[in-house]
Amino acid sequence: MPLPLDHPALAATDPELAALVAAEERLQADTLRMIPSENYVSQAVLEATGTVLTNKYSEGYPGRRYYEGQQNIDPVETLAVERAKALFGADHANVQPYSGSPANLAVYLAFAEPGETVMGMSLPMGGHLTHGWGVSATGRWFRGVQYGVRRDTGRIDFDEVRELARKERPKVIFCGGTAVPRTIDFAAFAEIAREVDAVLVADIAHIAGLVAGGAHPSPVPHVDVVSTTTHKTLRGPRGAMLMCREEHAKALDKAVFPGLQGGPHNHTTAAIAVALREAARPDFRTYAHQVVANAKALAAALLERGFDLVSGGTDNHLVLIDLTGKDVPGKTAAKALDRAGIVVNYNTVPFDPRKPFDPSGIRIGTPSLTSRGLTEAHMPQVAAWLERGVSAAHKGEEAALATIRAEVADLLSGYPAPGLPTA
């Protein structure tokens, strides 16, 4: 296995790890990466992540640090904060959370006491673990109540959400999730939250890039707090941000530090700043709208091939497929598609009769494909590969999977991925 030319120091110091990095680079170059929470970052974001800023400790906030030597670090964090506020139109931004789950934990620490009631979308219906689900710390430390979707439409029933909120009187309500293929109606959630005097939090980890690019409505005018990761559709490093109205700024900042974290990861903060600068450019808006256009075209092509899509389609970057009608479990299909060079994740679907570790569905998305330059014109071919891959999984035809993998690699050779070394 050849060593990566782009990482000479790593190759010299730890050839075993360097070889694994090189293998991952080839894998990301040669496969259709369709997990909707994955993407490609730019070379600039990669470089920022690998700077000497990783050497610095910086507990506190700009101008209020517990360590000296912050004359370069403070401006880096201030750049990220100001760019976040400008891009999303927020009063206040905190760019220090290590990832999305700690960001959500900071919300609980700021606005709720242990044992109090919190409300979020049920995990099997498309929500996130940290929205009060039982196996999460948020469901153990707080009393979580969950809303879901209608069985007939696969969409949120706001009459049911209002009824549950009135009955349970939660301190915090989360909207958003990890497998929600439709536009989130932030205004409808805000009306309910005001009625029960709850803090409303929009978790836009999946759709932050679409919001920034104008391809999804913004939650900022409607909610108290916005929580998001900085990767996924936003195409930044693995980090997170919290944004809020000015009245909540002090509580959230205290919850992040010293409430939950010590020193921020300054190299990540720098890469967030770079990603936010990139997201403010006109070409990012083009990318965000293309992500949605690709997802809608892919959904239409899948429907034509007889696939059952949760909610009947998509409004964003994500398509959730129920494979019950194809007589193939989601896990079986996902593993077969991986061998075919199509990377997806198995996923529960609403009202799934199967267990979470062996569910009925798969979750797919278009961010990575779009970042490589694929358009609506390619989506019928992607749908055809998905159909052939699922059929091969059902029949146990490994040769068919190998053929698909070769075809996928051939197509992608003409669409280099951002940030990856070229041959």
UniProtKB/TrEMBL annotation:
Protein function: Catalyzes the reversible interconversion of serine and glycine with tetrahydrofolate (THF) serving as the one-carbon carrier. This reaction serves as the major source of one-carbon groups required for the biosynthesis of purines, thymidylate, methionine, and other important biomolecules. Also exhibits THF-independent aldolase activity toward beta-hydroxyamino acids, producing glycine and aldehydes, via a retro-aldol mechanism. Thus, is able to catalyze the cleavage of L-allo-threonine.
Pathway where this protein functions: One-carbon metabolism; tetrahydrofolate interconversion; Amino-acid biosynthesis; glycine biosynthesis; glycine from L-serine: step 1/1
Matching Pfam families: SHMT
Protein name (record): Serine hydroxymethyltransferase
Enzyme class: transferase
UniProt-annotated site: Plays an important role in substrate specificity, residues: 231
Protein's cellular compartments: Cytoplasm
N6-(pyridoxal phosphate)lysine modifications at: 232
Residues reported to bind (6S)-5,6,7,8-tetrahydrofolate: 123, 127-129, 246
Cofactor(s) demanded: pyridoxal 5'-phosphate
Catalytic activity: (6R)-5,10-methylene-5,6,7,8-tetrahydrofolate + glycine + H2O = (6S)-5,6,7,8-tetrahydrofolate + L-serine
